[in-house]
Specification:
This protein is of the alpha+beta class. It has helices spanning 3-35, 103-131, 149-153, 172-182, 238-265, 276-289, 291-309, 317-330, 336-366, and strands at residues 40-55, 61-75, 134-136, 143-144, 160-164, 167-168, 187-193, 196-202, 205-210, 216-221, 224-225, 232-234.
Length: 368
């Protein structure tokens, strides 16, 4: 692939995708900070040297920076890891500093970033379900793979799967969301056969399956499929669209946490972890499938960004929320030195994870 083709196919969609989800995240921080009387000095998409920017009427510098792997907002007076007010801030301006605000205000400002990502995904999903429609395939089994967990459990063609571990299944797509949540662990599958409800027991197995973008990934499966003959696009009303958007956002969140949990306990390989290279690859593939696929991918990525930022790791929003919880309970902030050490540990973890996932991506691409 030549440089121009790579740029247009993968790099441009990647930059657009990342810019949107980062902008939404930082805009959440920005808006709630202003509503609470905090002055925002800088709103940056990317890190490093500024490429282009401007100052708004309130003195905030809006800019795009050289390294497009994130972004940040800088509040008035931020001096160190503890967000103490810098000594050079004028006395009359100190009430506009982030650190001068009450704990609940700081919590609101920090939580607003992930919340904005979730809200953005909800809006995108709702609009798609309302104006385009939701792909829908009834959870009726057309085929059971020979030797599969489903076959061993006694599931037959024509069975309608109505629940997994007691959680309702309304459509075939629900299986793709629910089965990975439980991994390759024993599960109860409720089916409707000739008007009679049966509860069967099975253990999913790990298989290499298409990920929808021309690649494969290892996921737990039952070994059932649908011909898609009953497939249809169903437009939903405003209320149903919102409800379905909430369900979709919840499913994406649960699936992400389940996958990470399986990696931690060792039931899923670390090769499933992906970094910027894989995001670029998926962004390009989604863009090639069309605008609808692209915006749905952006919404899913937004959910993941919001979720990961809530992890209680120093340097992430979740780490700051833990510090404010400590302050609220103890009546005083954690010591500056302790916060600095925590921040350094958090940065090391994040950079280490980025290096590891990028190396994972490179190895996967080399392997074909």
């Amino acid at each position: 692939m030549d440089v121009l083709s790579f740029f247009s196919t993968y790099l441009v969609p990647f930059l657009l995708t990342l810019t949107v989800v980062v902008f939404v995240h930082e805009l959440g921080h920005f808006l709630v900070a202003r509503w609470n009387g905090v002055h925002v000095e800088v709103f940056s998409i990317g890190f490093g040297p500024e490429i282009i920017g401007f100052d708004d009427a309130r003195g905030t510098r809006w800019k795009i920076s050289l390294i497009p792997l994130g972004g940040y907002v800088r509040f008035l007076g931020d001096a160190d890891a503890s967000s103490a007010v810098a000594a050079d801030v004028a006395v009359e301006d100190r009430e506009r500093a982030f650190a001068s605000k009450r704990v609940w205000q700081r919590v609101a400002i920090v939580f607003a970033g992930p919340a904005a990502n979730f809200l953005f995904a909800l809006v995108v999903f709702s609009l798609v379900f309302m104006f385009v429609g939701k792909p829908f395939t009834p959870a009726v089994v057309d085929r059971v793979s020979e030797g599969s967990p489903a076959a061993a459990a006694g599931i037959q063609p024509g069975d309608e799967i109505t629940a997994i571990e007691g959680r309702a299944v309304r459509q075939f797509e629900d299986l793709r969301m629910l089965v990975p949540v439980y991994g390759a662990a024993p599960m109860r599958v409720t089916v409707l056969r000739n008007g009679q409800e049966l509860v069967l027991h099975t253990v999913p197995e790990w298989r290499e399956m298409p990920d929808g973008f021309g690649k494969t990934q290892k996921i737990p499966v039952l070994g059932v499929s649908s011909s898609g003959s009953a497939f249809r696009i169903e437009r939903l009303g405003p209320l149903d669209s919102v409800v379905e958007a909430v369900n979709r956002t919840w499913s994406v969140s649960v699936s992400t946490l389940a996958a990470l949990g399986q990696i931690v306990v060792g039931t899923r390989g670390v090769e499933d972890l992906g970094g910027p290279v894989r995001i670029a690859e998926y962004s390009g593939n989604a863009a090639q499938l069309g605008f609808l696929s692209m915006i749905m991918f952006v919404a899913v990525l937004s959910v993941n960004l919001g979720l990961i930022n809530l992890f209680p790791i120093p340097a992430l929003d979740g780490g700051h929320l833990v510090l404010y919880a400590w302050e609220a309970v103890c009546g005083r902030p954690l010591g500056e030195k302790a916060q600095e050490i925590g921040l350094r540990i958090g940065l090391i973890l994040l950079f280490g994870l980025m290096i590891f996932t990028t190396w994972n991506d490179i190895l996967r691409l080399i392997a074909g």
